[in-house]
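Q: What would this chain look like folded?
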Amino acid sequence: MLRRSKRGRIEKSTGPDFQVYLVEGSREEIGSQFFYYYSIEEDPKSFDEAMKSQDVAFWKEAISDEMDSIMGNNTWVLSDLPPGCKTLGCKWIFKRKMKADGSIDKFKARLVIQGFRQREGINYFDTYAPVVRISTIRLLIAL
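A: My prediction, written as C-alpha coordinates:
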Protein backbone atom coordinates (compact mmCIF):
# COMPACT_ATOMS: atom_id res chain seq x y z
CA MET A 1 0.00 0.00 0.00
CA LEU A 2 1.38 3.40 -0.99
CA ARG A 3 1.87 5.97 1.69
CA ARG A 4 0.67 9.45 0.75
CA SER A 5 2.04 12.66 2.13
CA LYS A 6 -0.25 14.60 4.46
CA ARG A 7 1.48 17.88 3.65
CA GLY A 8 -0.82 20.51 2.15
CA ARG A 9 -0.38 21.25 -1.54
CA ILE A 10 0.53 24.81 -2.50
CA GLU A 11 -0.38 25.91 -6.00
CA LYS A 12 2.56 27.53 -7.76
CA SER A 13 2.02 30.84 -9.51
CA THR A 14 4.07 31.78 -12.57
CA GLY A 15 3.17 35.45 -12.31
CA PRO A 16 0.60 37.75 -13.93
CA ASP A 17 2.52 38.14 -17.22
CA PHE A 18 2.79 34.41 -17.96
CA GLN A 19 0.82 33.24 -20.98
CA VAL A 20 0.23 29.77 -22.38
CA TYR A 21 -0.35 29.27 -26.07
CA LEU A 22 -2.12 26.14 -27.26
CA VAL A 23 -1.52 25.17 -30.87
CA GLU A 24 -3.73 22.67 -32.65
CA GLY A 25 -2.52 20.43 -35.46
CA SER A 26 0.14 17.89 -36.27
CA ARG A 27 3.87 18.49 -35.95
CA GLU A 28 4.21 18.84 -39.74
CA GLU A 29 1.44 21.45 -39.96
CA ILE A 30 2.92 23.45 -37.11
CA GLY A 31 6.38 23.17 -38.63
CA SER A 32 5.20 24.61 -41.94
CA GLN A 33 3.39 27.50 -40.20
CA PHE A 34 6.24 28.36 -37.82
CA PHE A 35 9.32 27.82 -40.00
CA TYR A 36 11.28 30.47 -38.10
CA TYR A 37 11.28 28.22 -35.03
CA TYR A 38 13.14 25.49 -36.90
CA SER A 39 15.52 27.86 -38.70
CA ILE A 40 17.49 28.51 -35.51
CA GLU A 41 20.68 26.45 -35.78
CA GLU A 42 22.30 24.72 -32.86
CA ASP A 43 26.00 25.14 -32.17
CA PRO A 44 28.13 22.78 -34.28
CA LYS A 45 29.31 19.63 -32.49
CA SER A 46 32.40 19.08 -34.66
CA PHE A 47 34.77 20.88 -37.00
CA ASP A 48 33.05 19.32 -40.03
CA GLU A 49 29.64 20.59 -38.91
CA ALA A 50 31.05 24.10 -38.45
CA MET A 51 32.54 24.04 -41.95
CA LYS A 52 29.19 22.90 -43.44
CA SER A 53 27.03 25.44 -41.58
CA GLN A 54 25.76 28.69 -43.07
CA ASP A 55 27.98 30.66 -40.64
CA VAL A 56 31.22 29.11 -41.91
CA ALA A 57 32.96 32.50 -42.33
CA PHE A 58 32.28 33.42 -38.68
CA TRP A 59 33.50 30.02 -37.44
CA LYS A 60 36.71 30.33 -39.49
CA GLU A 61 37.36 33.74 -37.97
CA ALA A 62 36.76 32.34 -34.45
CA ILE A 63 39.18 29.48 -35.16
CA SER A 64 41.88 31.85 -36.37
CA ASP A 65 41.37 34.05 -33.27
CA GLU A 66 41.80 31.00 -31.03
CA MET A 67 44.94 29.86 -32.86
CA ASP A 68 46.39 33.41 -32.68
CA SER A 69 45.70 33.44 -28.95
CA ILE A 70 47.36 30.05 -28.46
CA MET A 71 50.43 31.08 -30.45
CA GLY A 72 50.62 34.55 -28.87
CA ASN A 73 50.54 33.18 -25.31
CA ASN A 74 53.21 30.53 -26.06
CA THR A 75 50.83 27.89 -24.74
CA TRP A 76 52.69 24.98 -26.29
CA VAL A 77 56.12 24.09 -27.66
CA LEU A 78 56.67 21.76 -30.60
CA SER A 79 58.79 18.77 -29.56
CA ASP A 80 59.49 15.19 -30.56
CA LEU A 81 57.27 12.44 -29.19
CA PRO A 82 59.10 10.10 -26.79
CA PRO A 83 59.34 6.49 -28.02
CA GLY A 84 56.41 4.27 -27.05
CA CYS A 85 54.02 7.18 -26.46
CA LYS A 86 50.86 8.06 -28.34
CA THR A 87 49.72 11.57 -29.06
CA LEU A 88 46.64 12.96 -27.37
CA GLY A 89 43.84 14.12 -29.62
CA CYS A 90 42.15 17.48 -29.57
CA LYS A 91 38.66 18.72 -30.29
CA TRP A 92 37.09 22.00 -31.31
CA ILE A 93 34.26 23.36 -29.16
CA PHE A 94 32.01 25.89 -30.90
CA LYS A 95 29.64 28.26 -29.10
CA ARG A 96 27.55 31.25 -30.09
CA LYS A 97 27.66 33.96 -27.42
CA MET A 98 24.35 35.79 -27.21
CA LYS A 99 23.41 39.31 -26.12
CA ALA A 100 20.63 39.97 -23.62
CA ASP A 101 18.17 40.72 -26.42
CA GLY A 102 18.79 37.33 -28.06
CA SER A 103 20.98 38.47 -30.95
CA ILE A 104 24.39 36.91 -31.57
CA ASP A 105 27.24 38.78 -29.89
CA LYS A 106 30.15 36.70 -31.19
CA PHE A 107 31.21 33.26 -32.33
CA LYS A 108 33.60 31.47 -29.97
CA ALA A 109 35.85 28.50 -30.82
CA ARG A 110 38.05 26.68 -28.30
CA LEU A 111 40.63 23.97 -28.93
CA VAL A 112 40.64 21.46 -26.07
CA ILE A 113 42.90 18.47 -25.46
CA GLN A 114 41.47 15.01 -24.78
CA GLY A 115 43.36 14.65 -21.50
CA PHE A 116 41.16 11.81 -20.28
CA ARG A 117 43.40 9.45 -22.26
CA GLN A 118 46.35 10.14 -19.96
CA ARG A 119 47.27 7.62 -17.26
CA GLU A 120 48.74 8.60 -13.91
CA GLY A 121 52.28 7.33 -13.43
CA ILE A 122 52.81 6.93 -17.16
CA ASN A 123 51.89 10.24 -18.78
CA TYR A 124 52.09 12.40 -15.67
CA PHE A 125 53.22 11.97 -12.07
CA ASP A 126 52.02 14.93 -10.03
CA THR A 127 49.08 17.26 -10.24
CA TYR A 128 49.78 20.57 -8.62
CA ALA A 129 47.55 23.60 -8.40
CA PRO A 130 48.93 26.42 -6.25
CA VAL A 131 46.11 27.93 -4.20
CA VAL A 132 46.52 30.63 -1.59
CA ARG A 133 44.08 32.26 0.77
CA ILE A 134 43.75 36.05 0.75
CA SER A 135 44.55 36.15 4.47
CA THR A 136 47.98 34.62 3.75
CA ILE A 137 48.71 37.26 1.13
CA ARG A 138 47.71 40.03 3.58
CA LEU A 139 50.00 38.53 6.20
CA LEU A 140 52.96 38.49 3.80
CA ILE A 141 52.30 42.07 2.73
CA ALA A 142 52.03 43.18 6.35
CA LEU A 143 55.37 41.57 7.18
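The CA atoms of residues 37 and 97 lie 19 Å apart.
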